[in-house]
């Protein structure tokens, strides 16, 4: 774990000089995306470079830079406002972020802090408007600008607004991260650490909360000097069960190894002594080091603190210009002295093992009953959102399969509340998909159709990207996919079956959440028209692809439902008696396979249903009738 204390370069000591932030924004060109997001690399981008340099945005941007370099501040500010206006209200978002940053830098450097707050308020309102999709990092950048300007302006109302925006943007899980705006404090419940939101001229500007016990929490503070210069500090705190069996010497060694990993290009400064962090029962280290810069540029001092307490590791790293080192050493203790850490609790040691057992029970053994039992037992020790989301999902699905609908609803509701705060890796992605499907089924059974549609649309959020052939219904309360070419409509849920997220635009699957029965749907097929040719094709597929021996066949007409007024698709139902070609452990006892084949003009659609009982066949027929062919 480590905390970075990064500092901005000081202002040039002249009444009208730019801050380092302004210098960086004005003298450095915009990011490649600012001119054209699609042109970043390759020969095509290089060929277009002259045109990009002559774009109206870049021409006006150069005028802003030239005015700032000539210290024509009123002119630079007016030109920067025009530059921003070029990107409003729905211009290139990268140019918009760049232009708003230039204007903010000019206002900030001139001490026009209330105007900087107002300008940031306007950009925040635009970013929050319906239909606006902020680019990555945009909201965080605006929040940091707002917090900085509000502190310098002494605007307590704006400060409160931007701290609330920080809380929302960081997606801090409320049971784990307790914001106390009255006392300006933030408590991290898992570590029992309380840190300030605001302390004197220090303000919290960024929070990346830990979403699982394996993750570390990252916090960033800024100290604002009266003249606008700033000292930036990053802090990292995480839990490492590997520390449990280490003695003090081993813990000290681990801190030194971590420090050496980041300090390969720095020279130690033993003459610069750093104050120890004010916590008891800890092993800690402090070190200052120097980073040599190119000729003519001042050296940078790196100030590092590392601490192990219990199984928790806290790390701090600060960067400060050599000339500012005394100021940094004076201000940093004010920050950590406002932190309260009465003890470093041990997290429940058995929970990781319990979670592995839960995962094995449902993923490997397909034993949802045992998985649910294990999950319910483990929930008592869960506190991170990832733990709560995973365990509540499994407990809810287990209860659903046991026909305990009320209990399933309670667990799945808690899971769905926790999932937005979780980083989605392979296991988590699989479980959140299941939570949304089972939650939708329960909502539909309870008559909450809008909730059911919302959850299914979330689950099938990528369905509209299937080559733009299948798109979600425009009405957010309708859980349908529609084929833009044929007009075929697929309900996301019907007869207890749920449409699964597909890998391509032609092959779909419906799954029965209770039994696991799968029905395959293929659209846009070029298959023969004659019955003889179709029968041969189907028998070959069953025998070669599905390893089934086919027997007798029954055929009958099928009345296909449609929403089209100008066509009446014709359908046939084919029912093959089948048996397994060879016995396989765990293989389903399929007795027949039913195909519904519907003529859609130039192509056909086929629904395939392996069935082992009359009930399964009845339910498959219900799905066939629910489709709009």
Automatic annotation (TrEMBL):
Signal peptide, first to last residue: 1-34
Keywords: Signal
Protein name: Uncharacterized protein
Naturally occurring in which organism (per UniProt): Comamonas testosteroni TK102
């Amino acid at each position: 774990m480590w905390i970075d204390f990064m500092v901005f370069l000081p202002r040039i000591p002249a009444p009208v000089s730019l801050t380092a932030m302004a210098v960086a924004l004005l003298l450095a060109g915009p990011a490649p995306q600012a001119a054209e997001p699609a042109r970043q690399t390759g020969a095509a981008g290089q060929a277009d470079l002259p045109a990009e340099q002559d774009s109206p945005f870049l021409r006006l941007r150069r005028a802003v830079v030239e005015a700032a370099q000539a210290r024509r501040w009123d002119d630079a500010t007016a030109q920067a406002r025009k530059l921003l206006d070029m990107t409003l209200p729905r211009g290139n978002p990268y140019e918009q972020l760049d232009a708003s940053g230039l204007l903010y830098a000019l206002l900030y450097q001139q001490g026009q802090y209330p105007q900087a707050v107002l300008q940031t308020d306007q950009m925040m309102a635009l970013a929050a408007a319906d239909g606006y999709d902020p680019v990555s990092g945009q909201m965080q950048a605006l929040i940091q600008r707002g917090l900085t300007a509000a502190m310098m302006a002494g605007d307590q109302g704006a400060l409160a607004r931007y701290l609330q925006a920080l809380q929302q943007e960081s997606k801090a899980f409320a049971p784990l991260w307790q914001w106390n705006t009255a006392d300006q404090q933030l408590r991290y419940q898992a570590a029992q650490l309380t840190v300030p939101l605001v302390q004197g001229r220090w303000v919290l500007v960024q929070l990346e909360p830990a979403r699982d016990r394996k993750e570390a929490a990252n916090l960033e503070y800024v100290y604002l000097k009266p003249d606008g210069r700033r000292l930036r500090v990053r802090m990292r705190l995480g839990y490492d069960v590997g520390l449990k069996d280490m003695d003090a010497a081993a813990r000290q060694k681990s801190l030194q190894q971590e420090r050496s990993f980041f300090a390969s290009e720095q020279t130690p400064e033993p003459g610069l002594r750093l104050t120890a962090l004010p916590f008891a029962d800890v092993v800690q280290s402090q070190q200052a080091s120097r980073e040599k810069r190119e000729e003519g540029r001042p050296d940078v001092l790196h100030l590092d603190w590392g601490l192990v307490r219990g199984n928790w590791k806290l790390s701090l790293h600060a960067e400060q210009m050599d000339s500012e080192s005394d100021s940094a050493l004076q201000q940093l203790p004010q920050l950590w002295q406002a932190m309260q850490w009465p003890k470093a609790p041990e997290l429940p040691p058995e929970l990781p093992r319990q979670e592995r057992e839960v995962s094995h029970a449902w993923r490997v053994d397909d034993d949802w009953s045992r998985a649910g039992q294990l999950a319910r037992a483990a929930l008592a020790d869960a506190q991170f959102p990832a733990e709560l989301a995973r365990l509540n999902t499994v407990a809810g699905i287990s209860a659903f399969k046991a026909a305990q609908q009320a209990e399933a609803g309670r667990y799945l509701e808690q899971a769905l509340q926790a999932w937005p705060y979780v980083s989605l890796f392979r296991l988590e992605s699989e479980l959140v998909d299941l939570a949304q499907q089972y939650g939708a089924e329960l909502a539909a059974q309870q008559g909450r159709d809008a909730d059911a549609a919302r959850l299914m649309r979330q689950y099938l959020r990528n369905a509209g990207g299937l080559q733009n052939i299948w798109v979600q219904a425009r009405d957010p309360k309708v859980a349908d996919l529609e084929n833009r070419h044929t007009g075929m409509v697929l309900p996301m849920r019907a007869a207890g079956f749920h449409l699964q997220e597909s890998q391509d635009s032609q092959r779909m699957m419906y799954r029965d959440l209770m039994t696991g029965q799968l029905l395959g749907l293929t659209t846009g097929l070029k298959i023969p028209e004659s019955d003889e040719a179709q029968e041969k094709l189907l028998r070959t597929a069953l025998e070669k692809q599905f390893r089934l021996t086919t027997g007798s066949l029954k055929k009958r007409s099928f009345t296909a439902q449609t929403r089209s007024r100008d066509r009446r698709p014709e359908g046939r139902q084919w029912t093959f008696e089948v048996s397994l070609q060879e016995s396989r452990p765990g293989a389903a006892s399929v007795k027949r396979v039913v195909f519904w084949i519907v003529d859609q003009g130039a192509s056909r659609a086929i629904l395939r249903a392996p069935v082992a009982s009359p009930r399964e066949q009845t339910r498959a027929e219900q799905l066939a009738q629910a489709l709009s062919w």
